[in-house]
Amino acid sequence: MHLFTKLFRSLDSTTGTLRKIEALAQYFQTAPPEDAVWALYLLAGRKQKRILTRTVLQSAIQSLNDIPPWLFEESYAVVGDLAETIALLLPKSSACLPLPPSVPLHQWMEERIPALSRSEDPETLLRTWWLTHTREEVFILNKLITGGFRTGVAKNLVIKALAQAFASTEAHIAERLFGDWPVSADWFKSLAESPSGEFGSSASPYPFYLASALDADAAEATPIEEFAIEWKWDGIRAQLVKRGSQVSLWSRGEELLNESFPELISTAKDWDQDLVLDGELLLERDGKLLAFAELQKRISRKNLSAKWLATHPALFLAFDCLERNGEDLRAATQRQRRAQLDELIASAPPLFRASPLLQASSWEAARQLRSEASDRSAEGLMLKLWSGTYKIGRRRGEWWKWKVDPLTLDAVLIYAQAG
After folding, report:
1. What are phi and psi of 412, to 5 degrees?
2. What is the DSSP code string of 155-211?
3. Rounded to whole angstroms, how far apart are CA atoms 227 and 59?
């Protein structure tokens, strides 16, 4: 835990991108693999479970400090973070206690923290840990216990650091980190191995290629005829992965969506080819696309009844073919991949269609198409260079998104209140 705390301190104390990458790379090179893989798990933003409620944590610190509830609430209101509030409220005398040998991060993640939920007296265990660790360590432990650990490190920086640490390529690391991957020392050590040419497991998606907002000066330097033009749909970006009998549906946020779209999974199993398609998840009723809010309702529902599925029918609108019968097509041009997609869709099972290609003879004609997007339940246009390949992450110049000016605004309002 000492080594992970030192890494956290380094990342938290600088805004410099290169310094963050250097700190991460050094940690990945020097930490034991069984600890490094858990650090990667946390830094990559994988989901964490909340082990204890705020009530238990608050009770433990109040009994340790003998502070009344109102004082804790006032302190919490000023600090704004439960883990930090507790770390700051530790008695000063605890700083004088001898610190025990550092427990490795993997033991905390695999044994100690999970044991809290099974403990008959978690408060006593908490107080023991708090009094025998530094405030920084207590802060991190509390974050892990509440499932709220975060750092100011973007995933692409973690990828760059791993590539530097293992003398690998960012593309190889990004592929290994997408989708589900085992939290094991052997898997972490395998990141240093050279790419084998085979991608991931039978369920693994590819890292998504992301479009950039249209830069009119840069884009219009290229004739419009050199772009594939499609509607920009207002749905959920997803990849359908079918390899053998296994079918998986992945969101861009690396969430497995099989349970939310069971009819797509069952229908795709009837496809007589292995494939990976990139596309948009939508809901369509009587030939009309439903609002995105209806799609969100479907994702959030735990139980999908037959009646509910019938009133909220799913549609996978494919716009790219990334793999076909085991062949990785990402290095092929947009035109070549579209030809593969059209061949596949010709024999597609129900609920799978290709996103239609649009025609524009000039940039002015493309602007006219864009103005019609709202009438088509679309957000605007997608422009994809016919000669471009399928890349990883956001790369400017080949994929542009040209959204219409919003008539409504989705926003999150926040406020601050002192004391």
Report:
1. -120, 120
2. HHHHHHHHHHHTT--HHHHHHHHSS----SHHHHHHTTSPP-SS-S-TT--PPPEEP
3. 62
Cα separation, 145 vs 122, in Å, equals: 11
Phi, psi (rounded to 5 degrees) for 247:
-125, 135
Instruction: Give the sign of the dihedral formed by CA 27, CA 175, CA 12, CA 51.
Output: negative
Cα distance between residue 137 and residue 194, in whole Å: 36
Q: Which of 296, 213, 216, 291 is nearest to 251 (CA)?
A: 296
**Which of 358, 404, 419 minimizes the C-alpha distance to 383?**
358
Write the CB contacts of 51 (distance below 8 Å, at least 6 apart in sequence).
113, 114, 116, 117, 145, 146, 147
Assign 210 a pLDDT band (cuts: 50, 70, 90).
very high
How many CB atoms are closer than 10 A to CB 369? Answer: 18
pLDDT digits (tens, 9 = 90+) for 180-193: 788 999 999 988 87
Q: What are the DSSP calls for 285-316, one per residue?
A: ETTEEPPHHHHHHHHH-S---HHHHHHS-EEE
Question: 240-271 pLDDT, tens per residue?
Answer: 999 988 899 999 888 889 989 999 999 999 88
Matching residue, tokens 């309702």: 297
The model's pTM: 0.70
Distances from the Cα of 90 to the Cα of 52, 300, 342, angstroms: 18, 39, 64
3-class DSSP state of 250: strand
